[in-house]
């Protein structure tokens, strides 16, 4: 096919960029460590301060940046392709809001203070509950529109419950902790977080990645895709549960990080000839690039203030999206 | 053996019966026009044959019960051209046509030489190869229709079901389309196309099935199906029926005046 070479080139460039940003993320932090020293410390078995910083603080942070970014980019591209709608994004299914609610409940009840995985586990449970409700509402014959509407309803309910928790919070510190957690961040995460999120993300990625051809066929609409041999119920199952598993896990360990899943597919679509199947891997790499870059920037811009990752992606992402809408408004009308 | 055999087909949409006991066979070599007034059940019939609508009665594809066929297997027997012409993303014309080969390729495999030849032939047949690299979303309505027809041709299935394929085409491309479908039938495929243009249907189809309110009113060669009385009772129109170059001419003239 035409453009096959260009597609491989785009993927290769994104891959190199992802790798470069991954190492950049490893380099940036309050402790000034030279590149050679840090790389040696990364693989050192002896311990010591530098090894501790590299292995326990920066490595999990960079890995999570990579995984969360890839999750957001991949799920955004998959949902836009499945729903045939450029406004679709990972938060659409209510998974992010429900995972947040789970985290808020963990903080509110003090469960998060009991052991390190308390918060992400309850957040994951929230994501699972959300997707079960959405899928039960939509049923097997429900279709995409029912899924969206159910997702909006679940999102709204979860946000309302989160607001209630803030409203009734026992002291201002609990409220502040909840607020800060919800802004989204990769600060102070450990390898335990990586091991918790990785299985869910890998399963979710595999489900979403297998959608490629079906999404291509869906370019011509649901009936046309079905007539070309696409099993629409299977597509719905993979899209909903793949998003839930990967985005649920991402939200559980990093909080809500907006705009990456919405904007990255838009940025890359023209580079892959708009083909949904090609957008999936490109968008996963693009999401990883954007999140690694953003997470590096928050450390550079305000090293002392703990600028939250979700705040930066929204502040940069929203105007960028506005510009994209302005640029492409003729096609979107 | 018939490519498609429908027996006593019943289907409802939203609790309202739309198909009320239809039976017919389609054999290789036929170009069948599916005609009937708005709401007669033409589109529902096509969608039911494809398994998109719950139904009673039997549908057999190539002698096999269609309900036992998976989506992929069915796609190798029937290509379908829906009425909807919405293309979601600005993919290239060639990419759209190549989607027709999807069902033949293993996952993640690129199209092979044979696939590319079939795609090329489909594009030439519909005269769209001149703008193969243009984004399909930026085409005119008629161009887009031809791209989607080429996509269905590229599926290269024995049976093609087309829902209003001629709508929105200029006369020259309408005739090109009808000739293409005739040629497909001549090559041993079968085509069933729903149509509103009785003139086109009469001139080019080898057989017409006239549906009204969910039942088959007439089924046979165009001259036998399109009689003045029948057009009066089904469409409530007066029609000029003539002949030119050995083929029938049907031209609606006026509404039947209520007496």
UniProtKB/TrEMBL annotation, chain A:
Keywords: Cell membrane, Membrane, Transmembrane, Transmembrane helix, Transport. It is a multi-pass membrane protein. It comes from the Bacteria. GO terms for cellular component: plasma membrane. The keyword Glycoprotein does not apply. Belongs to the binding-protein-dependent transport system permease family. FecCD subfamily. This is ABC transporter permease. The lineage of its organism: Bacteria, Pseudomonadati, Pseudomonadota, Alphaproteobacteria, Hyphomicrobiales.
TrEMBL record, chain B:
SMART domains: AAA. The keyword ATP-binding applies. CDD domains: ABC_Iron-Siderophores_B12_Hemin. Transmembrane segments: none annotated. Gene3D superfamilies: P-loop containing nucleotide triphosphate hydrolases. Coiled coil: none annotated. This is ABC transporter.
